[in-house]
Amino acid sequence: MTTSEHTEHVAGGDHQFATGTTAAVAGWDTLAADGSVVHIRPVRADDEQALDELNHRVSDRTIYLRFFALSRYAADQHTHHLTTADPLDGHVALVAEVDGEVVGVASYEPMRTDEAEMAFLVDDAVHGRGIGTLLLEQLAAVARERGIRHLHADTLAENGPMLRVFMDSGFTEVHQLGSGLVELSMDTAYAARTLDRMAERERAAEERSLKPLLAPRSVAVIGAGREAGGIGHEVLMNLVDGEFTGHLFAVNPHADRIGETPAYPSIADVPGPVDLAVIAVPSAAVPAVVEACGLAGVGGAVILTSGFSELGADGRQAQRDLLKLARRHSLRLIGPNCLGIVNTAPEIRLDATFANVRPLPGSLALAAQSGAVGIAVLDHASRAGLGISEFVSLGNKVDVSGNDLLLHWWHEPHTDVIGLYLESFGNPRKFGRLARLVGRTKPVLVVKGGRSSGGRRAGASHTAAAATPDTAVDALFAQSGVLRMETLEELVDAARVLSGRPLPRGGRLAIVGNAGGAGVLAADAASALDIDVPEFSAVTAAELTDDTGAVGAGNPVDLGAAATPAILEHAIRVILESGEADAVLVTYAATRAGDVGETYAAIARAAADSTIPVVVTCLGAPNAEPQIVLADGSALPVFPFPETAVRALGHAMRYSEWRTRPQGIVPAISGVDFDGARAIVRHFLARQSDDGWLDAKHAEQLMQCAGIAVVPALAASGLEAVLAAGERVGYPLVLKTAAPGVVHKTDVGGVRIGIPDAEELEQAYREITLAVGDTHMIVQAMAAPGVELVAGLVRDPLFGPVLMTGSGGVLTDLLADRRWRGLPLTDLDAGEMVRSLRCAPLLAGYRGAAPADEPAVLDVLHRIAWLAESVPEIAELDINPLIAAPTGAFAVDVKVHLTPATAEPDWYSRHLR
Length: 913
Known about the structure:
Blueprint lengths: L27 E4 L5 E6 L5 H10 L2 H8 L4 H13 L7 E7 L2 E12 L2 E8 L8 H15 L4 E7 L3 H10 L2 E7 L2 E7 L4 H23 L3 E5 L8 H11 L5 E5 L5 E2 L2 E4 L11 E4 L6 H10 L4 E4 L9 H16 L3 E3 L5 E4 L6 E4 L7 E8 L2 H13 L4 E6 L8 H9 L6 E6 L5 H11 L5 E5 L13 H5 L2 H12 L2 E2 L3 H11 L10 E5 L2 H13 L9 H11 L8 E2 L6 H14 L4 E7 L6 H12 L6 E6 L7 E3 L5 E5 L2 H19 L13 H14 L4 E2 L2 H10 L7 E5 L1 H11 L3 E5 L13 E5 L2 H15 L3 E6 L5 E10 L3 E8 L4 H4 L2 E5 L4 H9 L4 H6 L8 H17 L3 E12 L2 E4 L2 E5 L15
Parallel strand pairs: 5-6, 9-10, 9-13, 10-12, 13-14, 14-15, 18-19, 18-20, 20-21, 21-22, 23-24, 23-25, 25-26, 26-28
Antiparallel strand pairs: 1-2, 2-3, 3-4, 4-5, 6-8, 7-8, 11-12, 16-17, 16-19, 27-28, 29-39, 30-33, 31-32, 31-33, 34-35, 34-37, 35-36, 37-38, 37-39
């Protein structure tokens, strides 16, 4: 669900359950259905008393429904088992806490290799708050990470509440057993239905949790000074000047009033409930203030104060301690070290910032980690006439994050477009999933800071060497429909086109105006962005020429400098009514002979009923309005340059195309050997304590477990063994060094191809042995002729597995023709990876060559994705070349780097940091 740093999955930075380990974790904070915070963690030995108390606190009926008998003794015996069982037996138990009290327990016991039996008990006092569902989701996540694919439970048919929990989860299949029993069978894998239901439950909980922050009925500014210039004082004045509609209080022990606002010594003295506290006190005083807010029942706090994680280790610890304080009281936090928040809705009118910019009301929701960036965007948006619905300065992101806000803004009625400035991700794969859901109704625009090549990681394989943090971000955004903006200005420009206006229905752009040169520049910009500027039909061209006096009827349409507003209006109408464009750019050059106001009015009349976007470029009128307001209150954006307008329209076209295309499916993979793949990895890691490269034989076996065809090869050492292997493989063949530590064989002269006979094989053996200094060799059959590709994966510590494909062989690094995607990999993702390569024409059959078997190439990518999910120990995998032949796709050289698995986050689980 949230948060700031890369450990988002687990509270406090502790590790999740690791497959095959007994690692304990601090737990996960998540939201109940009512928006309160629930802490879920593994059971501890010292929980026995608390669980016994739970057993004796619940009703007789609850005990009966759970244990099928009215036996508290049986319940206590089960509690003893949960708290004393050996973790090595595969048993798992989780408890849920609210305000420090254990209110629920969930567990499973292994049945077979990949199956377990689960059970739940939830306190009667918290029924209806979704705690059973949260336990179910987290238990499934732990089970999935430990290799449990199916969970089962038997329950009584009369246990309606628990049946509803399971049915509503999206995980469960229900089977009637008879005798009043029902079997619940649960696949722990994430299905689309499961994720959608989780997202909707999380959205509803998030909405309730964030309401005190973003739609407060009362606000207290803690640390509001009496004199101008202080942060607390300026926030209070912004709230007053912005005409906040709720109750407003100041907290200052040295004043009774600050301006017209009543002041109180502490938050505890403020009369009535307080939804939002804005904290502007020295950093040393912040913890006590947060604790006081929690005790006073405050729903949310914005901490403006700096002096936390940005200062280093001590500051990070202070920030973690702050979060623990807030969690105890279900108090949501924004910041610290932030600018504040804004909600321009007329029923709220909240400006709880110390910025000197008051944003216009509008439909762009904006979040920024940097306060300075936030101010810059708010200022530019106001100058451009773009209104803001809500603004959140995230600061250090101790709690509320971009993921939380995506969920909140998903159904927020005043928001049409979501803009984010991010410097870091907490849970990137979850961000991608949420952005994909939100993007189906609202565009998500992101400026990602920190994209320099300095982040390039060292790697021995081609895939790893090519991977950078930015390639992972691009892959994430491409899959989730996020529009990546290069600059803040570009974000505002794109939002102006996307806010409150119809989307393009395709990629055809019509350009019309009285400025021929501007039209040419616009057409050039469109060409650079692969936007079509089509010629009009003969009918439309004739109407434009005959009725407007256009200088030719091409596209762009040049009406001439003397064109009147009426002529421009008519030309726009002709184009809009023709159905031959998906967007219209009006290029208008102001002159002394014309009137800007009359021209704007003409454009407004022509575009009033348009079902496609119309944007305007106005040249030579520095004081002209940045937008043309239509009769219905919406507005057409006016840009100072044609290139800027075309770029913004290009983003709208790209978003519209993504939104209307199918979402794709993750194909089921057949012919794979999960147990065999796990055995290869276990065997390798048992023989060495740290990471290393699989030898060629075991790398080939791992590919075979995944169902990836590998060109036959034999390992041999010494001349006699090499010659014998050559006879078995058959000529012509390939000889490659298998010297330990040599990854890029060609670079050291370790490869000979097309060897026709034993005599040349002996010569090749001697040359390679001399060049490399090692007699270990691989003798391999010649691959079928085809296009050389590279395919592989690298496991990013933050983004998880990232898959790559591109031009392979010796061209891999020279051409840098690569495409990246993360997981899950849909059929559409894989198709886009291959078809967008510059070498794609070769695969389709270039200049009479036989086309490659594209489905086989796509199948290899999906099998690599299966390996990424099934074998988390794979740090790098590189197939280079992968021969795309007319009859299949064949791996020629395979490199696999394994490392002991650290626990990977359950990227989709609902939790707070």
